[in-house]
Design goal:
Number of helices: 12
Structural class: mainly alpha
Low-confidence stretches: 1-19, 284-301
Largest sheet: none
Radius of gyration: 21 Å
Distance between the termini: 16 Å
Length: about 300
């Protein structure tokens, strides 16, 4: 059973929180990033482990839904891919093939760097989230909703607009290489790291979620300039990676950014915290004070 807080107190708390909340900070409950005290470390470590497990479960559910229930893709995905390529050519921004070929003319280790970054980007995502939780758990808790909302927004897009990636377009006159198939690691085969819907190029959530994780890291690190520098590098590098490996068009990257922008708006509009007390939560008011936030209580949406 869930419990509802007093409506009057809740609305008063929401009004107060909305006056201070931003897209990246939760308002009254915000606590600036800092080293956690030694007394909080055991609880914090358990919380971090529980959240990483939850993220892993949600990613598997997301991939299962995307592959199992979004099945009409092949019938229209190649037509959409031709439309995208013609649109980019009309804009004189059809640079993906030239960029890939330029990289392939470099020493072979260069393409291996991009391939491995594409294949293992989720480890970067998890690392960003762990560091964010360690230094700013309440701020991260607010931004966590941003990620889950983005997942809910992205999933139906693949049903609405299935899209073949560039690496499938060689038979149609665009000789992109599937660099992961040629150079490894074995990412997309049935025995590879991922078995997924092959016609879900748009939006690129490699780009969307790397951007979300990078921003979350930047907001939650005590060293602001370091956070911004790391975030900028990750965002630029993931965009280059998805294009060079032949997995996405640049418009897919833009679509990934649109998803996380829409999710940020929804997260900003929703009350924080939600007017629900889960069974495992201690009673809390709608507007959390910084002193309470610093205690790092466990989950809350």
């Amino acid at each position: 059973m869930t419990g509802l807080v007093c409506p009057g107190a809740f609305m008063e708390g929401v009004a107060d929180a909305m006056a201070q909340r931003t897209f990246l900070r939760p308002g009254n409950s915000d606590v600036p990033p800092r080293w956690p005290s030694s007394g909080r470390l055991p609880r914090l470590v358990l919380f971090i482990v529980s959240q990483i497990v939850l993220l892993l479960v949600m990613f598997q559910l997301y991939k299962m839904v995307r592959k199992t229930f979004i099945t009409r893709a092949e019938q229209v995905a190649f037509g959409h891919a031709k439309d995208v390529l013609h649109f980019e050519a009309w804009l004189h921004l059809d640079f993906e093939l030239r960029l890939q070929q330029w990289i392939l003319d470099r020493p072979e280790w260069v393409i291996h760097v991009f391939n491995n970054f594409y294949a293992y980007y989720m480890y970067i995502f998890y690392a960003c989230m762990v560091v964010a939780m360690f230094f700013a758990v309440e701020r991260w808790r607010y931004l966590r909703r941003w990620f889950y909302i983005s997942m809910a927004i992205a999933t139906p897009w693949y049903l609405i607009y299935p899209l073949a990636p560039p690496r499938f377009m060689e038979p149609y006159g665009w000789p992109f290489m599937d660099t992961l198939a040629v150079y490894g690691p074995n990412y997309f085969s049935e025995n590879g790291l991922v078995t997924a819907n092959r016609y879900a190029a748009m939006p690129s959530m490699h780009v969307g979620w790397t951007t979300l994780a990078a921003i979350t890291l930047a907001v939650c690190l005590p060293w602001r300039r370091v956070g911004y520098a790391i975030a900028a590098f990750l965002i630029v590098f993931i965009v280059l990676t998805v294009i060079i490996t032949g997995n996405h068009y640049w418009v897919d990257a833009v679509a990934g950014w649109l998803v996380i922008a829409a999710a940020a708006i929804v997260n900003r509009i929703l009350p924080y915290p939600l007017p629900i007390r889960w069974p495992w939560e201690r009673p809390r008011s709608a507007a959390i004070t910084p002193n309470h936030a610093a205690e790092g209580s466990s989950a809350g949406t």
